[in-house]
Design goal:
The structure is a single chain. The protein is of the alpha/beta class and 347 residues long. Helices cover 35% and strands 23% of the residues. It contains 13 helices and 14 strands. The protein binds adenosine-5'-diphosphate (ADP) and magnesium ion (2 copies). One magnesium ion binds next to helix 12. Keywords: ATP-binding, Kinase, Magnesium, Nucleotide-binding, Purine salvage, Transferase.
């Protein structure tokens, strides 16, 4: 069967991961010396956590991976056959689970499958309203550039209008993401980067600087924004509009569209600054959720980005896009893990 690429307007790329999620994880968080609201790559001392979770805990296995969550979120809002996701998985049961989730939720996966490889996993330790993410990338980090420009994938790059990149892909083979962003922005397509985790601007700031000129939208949460400011010589703490302004003013390769920076802040207001009105930050309050409406906040930011992109690709004005982002984030917070409500409801 040949799949026509022409209707697919959103191309997402990132690390496809299975989330292994447990609740009331306070003990494990202290045992592994983790921050309750953070995202890290597993070091040697964290590796036993996956076995331990599977052996000793009630684990929910759910489709995860930041950009993949966003892809499923955008697909929730957009007509069928609008969203593709590229990444690298292994040849295992976890990959089959991810494929099934994508299929069910209207995302066409363009996976590179590594023979004999293992699919990446993310331990999600929920405590209260926080989540601590510990990721073992396995083959997720091994996406080959050839795959991206292959006869199977390239037609989707050609037909897409918007590209969504999670910051995590700047940690391994960053040139693949940088080349992609450069090439598509040269053809005046829209590039959206999510900073993804505080350690990305902390440890991969050079890569962010290299890719930023090709980015039309940069999305982050408050902790990533602060980490970016600290990495770039600003005195922190610094307020969100000032950080958004500084990011908006980073060099840009094409002048149009002017860059827009969006900083979410959990239950606090979202800040938006566009470079054409850099001293007029727009502040969007978040509707408070009742305690009993909150299951966990895993994937909230990814869902926000999905709702935002879905509305953006539907031609909606910026205010409406932010609102759709907030609404999809609220829905995600009401489900276990980065999931949406099926059957579909209006948002
Ligand atoms: P991330 O998941 O990347 O850390 P945020 O925590 O900023 O992103 O959350 C993204 C969006 O999810 C927020 O803008 C808001 O709409 C919603 N959200 C997150 N946490 C809460 C909360 N505790 N109460 C209500 N809404 C929330
Ligand atoms: Mg948060
Ligand atoms: Mg996020």
């Amino acid at each position: 069967m040949t799949m026509s690429s022409s209707s697919y307007s959103l191309f997402c790329i990132g690390h496809p991961l299975i989330d292994m999620q447990i609740r009331q994880a306070e003990n494990l968080i202290s045992k592994y010396n983790l921050n309750p609201n953070d995202a890290i790559l597993a070091g040697e001392r964290h590796e036993p956590i996956y076995e331990e979770l599977a052996r000793e805990h009630q684990v929910a296995y759910v489709a995860g991976g930041a950009a993949q969550n966003t892809a499923r979120g955008a697909a929730y809002v957009l007509p069928p056959d609008s969203v593709v996701f590229a990444g690298c998985v292994g040849e295992d049961e976890l990959a089959e689970q991810l494929k099934a989730a994508n299929r069910r939720e209207g995302v066409l996966d363009l996976y590179q499958v590594k023979k004999g490889g293992k699919t990446g996993a993310c331990a999600v330790l929920v405590s209260g309203h926080f989540r601590s993410l510990v990721t073992s990338l396995r083959v997720a980090k091994d996406l080959d550039e050839e795959h991206l420009w292959s006869a199977r994938v390239k037609p989707f790059i050609d037909s897409a209008k918007v590209f969504y990149l999670e910051g995590y892909i700047l940690t391994h083979r960053p040139e693949i993401a940088i080349q992609l962003a450069r090439r598509v922005s040269e053809s005046n397509k829209i590039v959206v980067l999510n900073l993804a985790a505080p350690y990305i601007p902390r440890l991969f700031n050079t890569q962010i600087q290299t890719i930023a000129p090709y980015c039309d939208f940069i999305i982050s949460n408050e902790a990533e924004a602060e980490a970016w400011a600290a990495s770039n010589g600003y005195r922190v703490p610094m307020n969100m509009p000032s950080i958004a302004k500084a990011i908006a003013l980073l060099p840009k390769a094409n002048p149009s569209p002017p860059r827009t920076v969006i900083i979410t802040h959990g239950s606090q207001s979202t800040t938006v600054v566009s470079v054409d009105q850099v001293d007029v930050p727009r502040i969007y309050p978040v509707e408070p959720l009742k305690e009993e409406e909150i299951v966990d906040t895993n994937g909230a930011g990814d869902a926000f980005a999905g709702g935002f992109l879905g509305a953006f690709l539907s031609g909606r004005a910026l205010d409406h896009c932010i609102k759709t982002g907030h609404n999809l984030a609220a829905m995600c917070i009401g489900q276990e893990g980065p999931q949406y409500k099926w059957p579909r409801v209006e948002i």
